[in-house]
Amino acid sequence: MAPPQLSHEVVGEVEEVGAEATKFRAGDVVGVGLIVGCCRQCHPCKSSNEQYCSKKIWSYNDVYPDGKPTQGGFSSAMVVDQKFVVKIPAGMAPEQAAPLLCAGVTVYSPLKRFGLATPGLRGGILGLGGVGHMGVMVAKAMGHHVTVISSSDRKRAEAVDHLGADAYLVSSDAAAMAAAAGTLDYVIDTVPAHHPLEPYLALLGLDGKLVVMGVINQPLSFVSPMLMLGRKSIAGSFVGSVEEAEETLAFCQAKGVTSQIEVVKMGYVNEALERLERNDVRYRFVIDVAGSNLDDA
Ligand SMILES: NC(=O)C1=CN([C@@H]2O[C@H](COP(=O)(O)OP(=O)(O)OC[C@H]3O[C@@H](n4cnc5c(N)ncnc54)[C@H](OP(=O)(O)O)[C@@H]3O)[C@@H](O)[C@H]2O)C=CC1
Ligand SMILES: O=C/C=C/c1ccc(O)c(O)c1
Description:
about 300 residues, Quinone Oxidoreductase, Chain A, domain 1, Rossmann fold, 2 domains, six-stranded parallel beta sheet, about 25% helix, binds NADPH dihydro-nicotinamide-adenine-dinucleotide phosphate, binds the ligand O=C/C=C/c1ccc(O)c(O)c1
């Protein structure tokens, strides 16, 4: 399982622009998502899928060509090529925008790319965490009937009453899972730990898609008839492009979709990480870097 993460996207004001930068001006409120570099030559780069470039540079835990580390949202300032910068729509709070540049676009992109952005579909969101809660709200805003599939009953009220889910399944409830078999057009699987796929493939109807989003470094398994009998597919997806990030922001603003966040200071990060390990955040921490005393952190 990948270590739990604090929001690593950056949202802030442009301090200064370079002589050749044309897209932004000092004072603009902008954001940077997961990518701050790519080769610009390969097929993914040329087709606005730069997140799939094999030479991409991650905005955190990576290195720039000059060997300096990338620190994403964990730094007080950054220098970044305008290609990887998006404008935050007027009226959108910066702390609201940050999770949309990761969790938001992470669900928006596959729904769009896999032909699942049309109204009337029945979707499942497996795992109600940072990505999952955006999944519920984005899918609802697309006009879907949304079922949350969770590992416990603890989040039922928040899923249904606060996020607007239409149904809630506990994955260990065999009778409820059996009753829902074959009813979903897709499941967005956000679980970040090894888990069986078959219970979720069973929820899919004809042509249903299981989209695996969680980072799991162990083989996942299923028997092939689970796919063949129903022409089902298993797919993966990796955040979204800069273009899709812009679309996600516009979509969320137009539909009134807001992320559920807890804003903390840099001095709180260790406690935040411990709470993430305990599945105890609703649903994303955002660090107020500008408001933190970085000397004490
Ligand atoms: N593909 C991509 O582009 C991206 C992938 N990710 C990855 O997606 C995964 C989910 O991220 P995120 O939503 O931020 O994570 P969270 O920790 O916020 O949420 C994960 C949810 O999965 C459920 N879950 C079920 N079993 C487990 C388990 N054994 N351990 C922990 N959680 C479990 C929980 O929901 P419940 O209580 O409902 O069961 C939990 O809230 C991570 O692996 C992350 O790295 C993140 C962003 C982009
Ligand atoms: O290997 C793929 C990792 C994807 C990923 C992207 C963004 C993010 O916040 C993650 O936790 C994982």
